[in-house]
Write a structure and sequence with these properties.
Distance between the termini: 62 Å
Largest sheet: 7 strands, mixed
Structural class: alpha/beta
Radius of gyration: 23 Å
Number of helices: 14
Strand content: 15-25%
Number of strands: 20
Length: 457
């Protein structure tokens, strides 16, 4: 029997050995999902909604134990795990409130005996290859609207969040979603490869650009729905009229929350020369106040690095920046402790010759670059192959709008950052991916518009 060993990244301790899938079991489960999907789609929407309502109640009931599972396998501080679970609830509510109108049939023409309608049919069987950094958010952004729209879901959580994936699946089964309709596939890359070989009707992936490209190559010739939510190198510009202390406090959290392991973490900061020094002073002071330690500690803000290989990526970025003239204000090292830890790191005197300012860090490392004005800031913000989020701090909304209209990004922020709303689409430009989740569009993404031409006799 195949197995997946789960280690606690904060301690290195083996915490679970899970039965894992293989190519044979993946094919069997995919076949079962295909058979079961039609009956699930035929159920009234009210019955599917009732299942998701019971799932929501299960999350509320088990929230503390679910948070502990997530913290143990990912190294996320326990209070951040609770935040994620509590933050999931409004997303569930949004999907429940909006699904009926989002997928309702629409009559767009009715004259002279000819009626034209648009209906939203489910895609069928969808594959969801999900991420570990926000396993509840990222997984449920796909799973819940897909199920509500009448699809069956073959869900492969990241091997770094497989225990959480099993908990999501357990709660959905307990809520009444048939086991063949909501399937969890446990394993590493080979299980994902086996899943992509199945005759699914859509593939929804969240993760790295490299893996996204491999998935696109694997399924592109089949002309099925493909959605890729990939990385980011998200910039923010602090204008000369912004309050430097307020902006610093906000952006420090935007850069370091979840130990920097977020697609929409602030990864590049450009600060007008007039407020640069005051901003850096306040930013460094804020970061030095963040406590790194036992993820189960209630006052811990910085947790472990979930994937061990990322430690060397972060160390290499810091070394490259320092070698090219960057100034290190705090951190910069792999922490000498059991488990996988990297110190919160702030560098200035950075520029775009440095990997730190060009390639995704996905950790508690940030570069702050001084700029002379808005035009330079816009040019540098767009000097990237990514385009997930971007932000501006200024007292002037019209100035912020003018700047952000010029920046290539799927989501933009004025005087805030690192924020996701279920009411707004989550999408990217360039290497940040294709397609979207969330919003009413994110519900319709799991349907196929069907055009009806109806002439009365």
């Amino acid at each position: 029997m195949n197995e997946l060993k789960v280690h606690n990244p904060a301690t290195g301790e083996l915490i679970a050995t899970l039965p894992a899938d293989d190519a044979t079991s993946v094919a069997a489960k995919a076949g079962g999902a295909r058979v079961a999907q039609a009956a699930w789609a035929a159920q009234p929407l009210a019955q599917r909604k009732a299942c998701i309502e019971r799932f929501r109640a299960g999350v509320v009931r088990d929230l503390e134990s679910l948070a502990m599972v997530m913290t143990r396998e990912t190294g996320k501080p326990i209070r951040l795990s609770r935040n994620e679970l509590n933050g999931l609830l409004p997303r569930v509510d949004f999907f429940l409130q909006e699904v009926a109108s989002a997928i309702a049939a629409e009559t767009v023409y009715d004259e002279g005996g000819m009626r034209e309608q648009i209906e939203h049919a489910p895609l069928g069987v969808v594959a969801n290859i999900s991420a570990w950094n926000y396993p509840w958010f990222v997984g449920c952004n796909v799973i819940l609207p897909a199920l509500l729209a009448g699809n069956a879901v073959l869900y492969k959580p990241s091997e770094y969040a497989a225990m959480t994936g099993l908990e999501i699946t357990r709660l959905l089964h307990e809520a009444g979603v048939p086991r063949e309709v909501m399937v969890c596939l446990v394993g590493a890359g080979e299980v994902g490869t086996a899943l992509l070989q199945q005759p699914v009707d859509g593939v929804f992936f969240t993760g790295s650009v490299a893996t996204g490209k491999r998935i696109a190559e694997a399924v592109g010739h089949r002309f099925i729905k493909l959605q890729l939510e990939l990385g980011g190198k998200d910039p923010t510009y602090v204008c000369d009229d912004a309050d430097p202390a307020t902006a610093a406090e906000s952006l420090a959290d935007g850069a370091m929350y979840n130990t920097g392991q977020s697609c929409c973490s602030v990864e590049r900061i450009y600060v007008h020369e007039k407020v640069h020094d005051a901003f850096v002073q306040a930013f460094v002071k804020t970061v030095k106040g963040y406590r790194m330690g036992d993820p189960m500690g209630e006052d811990t803000y910085l947790g472990a690095i979930t994937r061990a290989p990322q430690l060397q990526v972060l160390a290499a970025q810091v070394a490259d920046a320092k070698a090219r003239g960057a100034k290190l204000h705090t951190g910069g090292n792999i922490a000498p402790a059991p488990g996988q830890w990297f110190e919160a790191t702030v560098l200035t005197n950075v520029d775009h010759t440095m990997e730190l300012m060009r390639e995704e860090s996905f950790g508690p490392v940030i570069g702050i670059q001084k700029v002379g004005g808005d035009d330079e800031a816009v040019r540098l913000m767009n000097d990237t192959r990514y385009g997930l989020t971007a932000g501006v701090y200024t007292r002037d909304e019209s100035r912020a709008r003018s700047i952000l209209l010029q920046v290539n990004a799927g989501s933009v922020y004025w005087n805030c950052c690192d924020r996701v709303s279920p009411r707004l689409p989550w999408s990217g430009v360039g290497d940040s991916g294709v397609g979207l989740t969330l919003s009413r569009y994110g519900i319709q993404a799991f349907t196929r518009p069907k055009a009806w031409h109806l002439r009365s006799a």
